Amino acid sequence: DDDDDIPQLSSHTLAALQEFYLEQQQREGIKTSQGFNQYSIGSIEEDWQLSQFWYSDETASCLANEAVVAAGKGGRIACVSAPSVYQKLKEQDGKDFSVCILEYDRRFSVYGDEFIFYDYNHPLNLPENLLPHSFDIVIADPPYLSEECLQKTAETIKYLTKGKILLCTGAIMEELAAKHLGVKICKFIPKHSRNLANEFRCYANYTSGLD
Asked: Mind listing the UniProt keywords for this protein, alphabetically (predicted)?
């Protein structure tokens, strides 16, 4: 009988596989349930291959609140490679500000017109309706700790902002951040939902509430 040649999974492997699928279904069930917020941190899972590391809930809230205060009433906020902050800002639904997210990961296109595809390798390849100096504050978190990445992201930031910049990157980038964006290190220390090997810091070019 040809069926004898079909490989069979061991009962242990089969049970583990079934458990995996059950957990996956439960996770998806939670996501599609009434109580799920599509803007919650973790609703889109980290992709380490894209150098994605989400902020802790507390850090994202702190940065979002700072951005709202800095932008002022009716302000416009741009989140460049900082989806956790964007998500926290969207949780403050109804507040008097507007926000958009510039991000390479197209999974964030679920956020509709506020999503703008962004590749730091082409820093000024932006939609025509994204006018220069049209944002009251830009918060950015360049995906890589390299001068090239920072320098190119800085071009985007300087194009978008009216003046205020909030940068999150490694502590080792302090001198380069000052060089390319004129920002100074803040006392506030951002944390991630998973611990990073590199020390992480915030930088600003204005008097912020993060000191």
From this structure: Cytoplasm, Methyltransferase, Transferase
Question: Model confidence over 18-31: pLDDT tens digits?
Answer: 666 566 555 554 44
Kindly tell me if the per-residue pLDDT of 80 is higher than 60: yes
Yes or no: say if 140 and 165 are a contact pair by the CB < 8 Å rule. yes
The runs of H, that is alpha helices, within the chain are: 11-32, 57-71, 83-91, 147-160, 174-181
In a 3-state reduction of DSSP, which class is residue 111? helix
Contact 185, 45 (CB under 8 A): no
Class of the 56-204 domain? alpha beta
The position carrying tokens 């502590």 is 171
Q: Helices marked H in 33-146 — which ranges?
A: 57-71, 83-91
Residue 152 structure tokens: 């190119």
Nearest alpha carbon to residue 182 among 210, 150, 209, 211 = 150
Question: Nearest CA to 135 among 192, 97, 186?
Answer: 97
Residue-wise pLDDT tens digits, 106-141: 888 888 899 999 999 999 999 999 999 999 999 999
SS3 assignment, position 200 = strand
Q: Give me the percent of the chain exceeding a pLDDT of 70.
A: 73
183/173 Cα distance (integer angstroms): 11
The pTM for the full model equals 0.76
